[in-house]
């Protein structure tokens, strides 16, 4: 008799276990960023932000439509290369991800977004700032940072009205991001009354800028603006120092990193660099960001570079939409994602406009002193 009871108990336990397993919902979140190449430090920073969000969501035991969700991160490397970016996007589509957070660069985010759109998969970029990313009418495309119009435009105005620049020189790296932010800077600086004494071009893998900078030196600009990333900006700053160019050096979020002083090899003067991060927190929200940075440091033994907290928020915003829709199916939660309004993240309150841009996006202006970033102001 006891044997039969034990068999019955075992059968019931197995049945209950099977029911529990059937109630578990596997949700795949894709992340893409450059985890190899010159800006791998930024891509890895973003990926760690995603990993932290996924770990915390699993620890919370989130339920979607009455089922306990198990979140899985599918991370891909695009090396900041558009071709590799589209390959990564196709791989994630084939893996049937429920949503994608990424890519880091505008130049990879834009071509990849068409692939996600065709597959009906929502995409939130934590850092792509090119206006084109959200201006093409794709219904699945969102971002949680301000765009180049706000970024470059604010810097252009700041160069003239605050730094009192009368002559500015512009360099861009011909990427979607670099060209976009440089164009907006140039237009805003001109509108504010500055003379643009030259606009030169390089690429995102260049290391020698002597010809460009020598040309600029003769024109004596008050500001040199660079549209590109920190891996190129560092050597450019070193060569400006070698040539004795004392102009202020300005750039967007691509140069506004903790690594820039190292890449410039100690050649930056205090206050010489002014840059803007396409996001920003102030007031009560600043504590949330400070707490996140401390948690990130404790978890990964690394400082936040720039956009890890925006990745973290993007993952959580996506999951919040799934919870509200009671479904992780892209077609079902996408309408809820588009209606996001008032989500309180570590980077501030997130709400999307009809294009998928963040409403009332903030910018944070920084300079560097003693080899460390120092905040100047948060502007909107």
TrEMBL record:
Official protein name in the record: Branched-chain amino acid ABC transporter substrate-binding protein
Native organism: Pelomonas lactea
CDD domains to which the protein is assigned, alphabetical: PBP1_ABC_LIVBP-like
Pfam short name (any one): Peripla_BP_6
InterPro entries per UniProt: Leu-bd (IPR028081), Leu_Ile_Val-bd (IPR000709), Peripla_BP_I (IPR028082)
Domain of life: Bacteria
PANTHER family assigned: AMINO ACID BINDING PROTEIN (PTHR47151:SF2), LEU/ILE/VAL-BINDING ABC TRANSPORTER SUBUNIT (PTHR47151)
Keywords: Amino-acid transport, Signal, Transport
Similarity comment: Belongs to the leucine-binding protein family.
Residues covered by the Leucine-binding protein domain: 27-371
Signal sequence annotation: 1-22
